[in-house]
Design brief:
The chain is of the alpha+beta class and 432 residues long. It is built from 16 helices and 16 strands. The strands form three sheets. An eight-stranded mixed sheet has the order 1-5-6-11-10-9-7-8. A five-stranded mixed sheet has the order 13-12-14-15-16, sandwiched between helices. The chain has a three-stranded antiparallel sheet with strand order 2-4-3. The chain is elongated and about 90 Å long. The structure holds histidyl-adenosine monophosphate (HAM). The site of histidyl-adenosine monophosphate has 25 residues, from strand 6, strand 10, strand 11 and helix 12.
């Protein structure tokens, strides 16, 4: 086989670029994190919502914005067999808004609060912390304009991050104004960049026309330099937005949540109004936001629903898990018992005993088919089982089963019907 052929086979048998498999024991960490989020979010009145992974492409164009990177370059879009334009969701907010309107959820008492988990898809250039399929846990709350709700969801995020023992997270906060004050700010930015325009990167030259705020978000060095001294949004906020922002800051301070105001935090999605925020970590490299969100008071209405203020955020699971793995070692779960059997009658009895113990809550690994006792015990040791139960013809006849503590190297016998009592004493596990 030539090298080219080998590479071809490898490509065919590896996950597509920018996607990844999540394997045990990492999956345990994912499960613990997701169930912790669910537990905390439910305390704040958020209920789970599940929307399809695909939507009509229009849903994302109309919400995220025609001139954003996501819509211009990153969507996985295709025509289905009936010629419909379909897109794999690049984020969750647009789908939840579509769902909120479709099911007339605005008729229910406000605020309506939802959370979701699942994969998102963006055709981005993969790098550390940036994938083409990634996972988010997101929350969206509809029908309340008060800054107390913004403060509450930031507190909820902060509590969640504390609960999973994630330290060193910074909250960055900004207000990007509303339809009344943002046009004035955009004009100020446009005139600031007018004479610097030629020096901007090609993306920012386009942003100069489509949405000059996004120039503030650009990571290209020369754009960072050129924007030095640019007008700052806090100076352009209308009274309502100023008041909303100061009330939010006051509430966060009273809750003891530390934050820094970052006037350049404009976010890459077009739907935001007023509050924007990110939870960042310096341990993540350039993709430092572990969670991000903000207010989007006009989106429901722009989608054809009634005027409905809304606010939410999404946590990037891969980034969160990277930070957690840096802090704690995770190991493969081990069985409580390895069931070693010699002979087919003993195997039949062993299966019954194993079923019985699993029903009582124990984690049991079985030996399947014939092998010497020595090799079965070696396997039990290799997978980390602390206890082996051994059953053969003699044990079947006597009704007594052998046990071996693989850590303490002790052994003994027990009546078959007393096995679970033995597990309680030998394993010291009274909860099962
Ligand atoms: P976003 O900033 O695009 O916002 O994504 C939120 C989080 O998802 C990011 O902070 C990051 O942790 C993670 N993330 C985004 N893209 C990638 C990627 N390519 N690879 C790995 N992780 C990624 C939204 O998606 C908004 N829908 C958040 C929101 C909810 N705003 C209001 N409600």
């Amino acid at each position: 086989m030539t090298k080219k052929e080998r590479v071809k086979i490898l490509v065919k048998h590896s996950a597509p670029k920018g996607t990844h498999d999540i394997l045990p024991p990492d999956t345990s960490l994912w499960q613990i994190t997701e169930s912790m989020a669910k537990e905390i979010f439910e305390k704040y009145g958020f209920n789970e919502i599940r929307t399809p992974l695909i939507e009509h492409t229009e849903v994302f164009i109309r919400s995220i914005g025609e001139n954003t990177d996501i819509v211009e370059k990153e969507m996985y879009t295709f025509s289905d067999k009936a010629g419909r334009n379909i897109t794999l969701r690049p984020e969750g907010t647009a789908s939840v808004v579509r769902c909120y309107i479709e099911h007339n959820l605005h008729n229910l008492p406000s605020p309506q609060k939802f959370f979701y988990t699942g994969p998102m898809f963006r055709y981005e250039r993969p790098q550390k912390g940036r994938f083409r399929q990634f996972h988010q846990i997101g929350v969206e709350a509809f029908g309340e304009a008060q800054p107390s709700l913004d403060a509450e969801i930031i507190a909820m995020l902060s509590n969640f991050l504390k609960k999973i023992n994630l330290e060193g997270i910074n909250f960055e906060l900004n207000s990007i104004g509303c339809e009344n004050c943002r046009p004035g700010y955009k004009t100020a930015l446009t005139s600031f960049f007018e004479r610097k325009r030629e020096g901007l990167c090609p993306d920012c030259q386009r942003r100069y026309i489509s949405n000059p705020l996004r120039i503030l978000d650009c990571k290209v060095n020369r754009c960072v330099e050129l924007r030095e001294g640019s007008p700052m949004i806090p100076d352009y906020l209308c009274n309502e937005c100023k008041y909303h922002f100061s009330e939010l800051k006051e509430r966060l301070e009273s809750l003891g949540i530390a934050f820094i105001v970052n006037p350049e935090l404009v976010r890459g999605l077009d739907y935001y109004t007023k509050t924007t925020f990110e939870a960042t970590s310096s341990h993540l490299g350039s993709q430092k936001a572990v969670a991000a969100g903000g207010r989007y008071d006009r989106l429901v209405q722009e989608f054809g629903g009634p005027p409905t203020p809304a606010v939410g955020f999404a946590i990037g699971m891969e980034r969160l898990i990277t930070l957690l793995k840096d802090r704690r070692k995770i190991s493969m779960p081990v069985p409580d018992v390895y069931m070693a059997t010699i002979g087919s009658d003993a195997e039949i009895e062993g299966i019954k005993i194993a079923e019985n113990l699993r029903e009582k809550g124990y984690r049991i690994e079985m030996h399947y088919g014939g092998a010497s006792l020595k090799s079965q015990l070696r396997k039990a040791d290799r997978i980390g089982a602390p206890l082996a139960l051994i059953i053969g013809d003699d044990e079947l006849k006597s009704g007594r089963i052998k046990w071996k503590d693989l850590n303490k190297k002790e052994q003994g016998e027990v009546e078959i019907h007393n096995v679970s009592a033995l597990l309680k004493t030998v394993r010291g596990n009274d909860s099962k």
